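Action item from last week, closing it out:
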Amino acid sequence: MDASPIPIPRASDAQVLADARRRAVYLFVSKGHHPVTVNEVADAFNIHRNAAKHHLDRLLEAGLLQAEFKRVNGRRGPGAGRPSKLYTATDVEVSFSVPERHYDLLAHLLLQALTRGDDLETVGARFGRELGEATKAEYPDADVTDGVHRALDRLGFRPRVECDEGGTLWITTENCPFAGVAAGAPEGEVCRLDHSIITGVLDAFGAPSDVAGRTSIAAGHDVCVREVTPRC
């Protein structure tokens, strides 16, 4: 078996900034000369008000922003309306990098497909099993949900792995380590490889499953969402 370049987990000064949109919102607020409202952020990025509030509140929870309630129209007393929530950056020194990429790994896997004659699904699943087994060895008590999360986090996917009330397992990732190539793949080849890697990881944790993509960063969505069957 060929040795596969499995990256080790990386430390991040502010993991919340791994999301590109949220990082842009943080920079917008931190470089502004006045406190901003949810509506200002929504207008600046042409996104729904709820999406803007979600990003701002995540930054608030992380301690990167602070907030106060204040009436922006200067009116007081009855009829003045509810005060607005105003966000400003804290004085926390933040250091962050661009989203993690692993084009070396992608090239390694594609080369396997070319030289061995294997299809992408076989190559991805094989690597996924290797990654899953390596993660199991490091975290022997991890269950499927935790194990898949840890395995994908090692590759910089920034994953969220959860079961909904109906028992369906959903895997959402804020970053794609193969993003630049995936966006230019005409037939979704890189996304197929992505799904196969996750399938292999699940298999390594004793949960053989089919993985179906529901949204994709390569297609212009903010996150990749995958539905896993059978149910968890």
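Closing note: Residues 11 and 220 are 27 Å apart (CA to CA).
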